[in-house]
Design brief:
Keywords: Membrane, Transmembrane, Transmembrane helix. By secondary structure, this protein is mostly helical. The protein has 6 helices and no strands. The chain has one domain (about 10-45, about 55-155). It is about 65% helix and about 0% strand. The mean pLDDT is about 90.
């Protein structure tokens, strides 16, 4: 398997495997349980299931499109990161530039996603994470975790930096 110096160890496990699976999962959930169920889960409720006819056609379409966006993000991360690893195995500077550009876009999306999710919660639930359901924790708690791991990656925590944080990109000895 080609070297992936830009995503070593824990970062590789998290961003190459776990994040794509967790990002594609909402699309699968929508396909399996339906748009009404997923929509109902976005805001924690004491009702276990949505009432019949809960969503109009426009809302169902919007939830299906949201699921497609989740799937797209997961596929881009999974397939693009693997392409970077396979196409540039001996060029960690280029790997890091591409992964870093993607992480920048994802970090911005993390922040705006958390803000939208948090603001959209009813005021009595915003500061009561113990009353949140799995979907709410996924949208807020897990997304904040991913954002913090992206920031740790940019800071070079637990990895060698080749481009970000360097006054000049490092020259890599290709004889090893």
């Amino acid at each position: 398997m080609p070297q992936f110096q830009a995503l070593p160890g824990f970062y590789k496990l998290l961003f190459l495997y776990f994040e794509p699976v967790s990002t594609i999962s909402p699309a699968l959930i929508i396909w399996l349980w339906g748009a009404s169920w997923f929509h109902h889960q976005l805001v924690p409720s004491s009702e276990s299931s949505p009432p019949s006819g809960f969503l109009d056609n426009r809302s169902v379409l919007a939830v299906w499109q949201l699921g497609n966006c989740y799937m797209l993000l997961g596929l881009i991360s999974s397939l693009a990161f693997r392409a970077v690893r396979n196409a540039l195995p001996d060029n960690p500077v280029a790997q890091e530039q591409i992964i870093g550009s993607t992480f920048t876009a994802l970090a911005i999306a993390d922040v705006t996603h958390v803000l939208a999710s948090f603001v959209g919660l009813p005021s009595e639930l915003r500061f009561s994470p113990a009353s949140w359901n799995a979907t709410c924790h996924g949208n807020v708690t897990f997304t904040l975790f991913l954002f913090s791991m992206r920031m740790a990656w940019f800071m070079g925590i637990g990895r060698r930096r080749y481009y970000y944080g360097q006054s000049r990109p490092l020259k890599v000895d290709k004889t090893k």
